[in-house]
Design goal:
The chain is mainly β. The chain has a single domain, classed as Jelly Rolls, CATH 2.60.120. The protein is 0% helix and 50% strand. The strands form 3 sheets. Strands 1-2-3-10-5-8 form a 6-stranded antiparallel sheet, with no helix packed on it. Strands 7-6-9 form a 3-stranded antiparallel sheet, with no helix packed on it. A hairpin with a 2-residue loop joins strand 1 and strand 2. The radius of gyration is 14 Å and the shape is globular.
Length: 117
């Protein structure tokens, strides 16, 4: 069983003020799972997006406005947002500090469709 050290996980800025660490995916040897740590700066609102697979998003730090389809919810540490396949979703960090969300997908190669509107 491989052990993955967070500090060695690949990271990239995916939107201004949003950094993603690829904790588990096909590059780390996963057959059917992706886990990403997403750090979002205070006040940052990346574009809505969807995936062909469902996504569970575990909030571990911060307060966010979560968009799921046509609905909006306030979410805080310890809560999970479940986005069905093909449903637009996203977050706005409404706190004064960075927020952390772990995105979990049932695939080792996540496809993201960014909302053009």
């Amino acid at each position: 069983m491989p052990i993955i050290d967070r500090e060695n996980a690949p990271k990239a800025e995916i939107y201004p003020g949003v950094e993603r660490r690829s904790m588990v995916d096909g590059a780390q040897g996963s057959q059917s799972l992706t886990v990403s740590e997403v750090l979002t700066g205070a006040g940052v609102a990346p574009p809505l997006h969807s995936h062909p697979t469902e996504e569970a998003m575990l909030v571990t730090d911060g307060t966010l406005q979560a968009y799921l389809g046509d609905e909006m919810f306030t979410v805080t540490a310890g809560q999970i947002v479940l986005a069905p396949p093909g449903v637009k979703h996203g977050f706005v960090n409404t706190s004064d500090a960075p927020a952390t969300v772990y995105g979990i997908h049932p695939t080792n190669d996540v496809v993201t469709i960014w909302d053009e509107a």
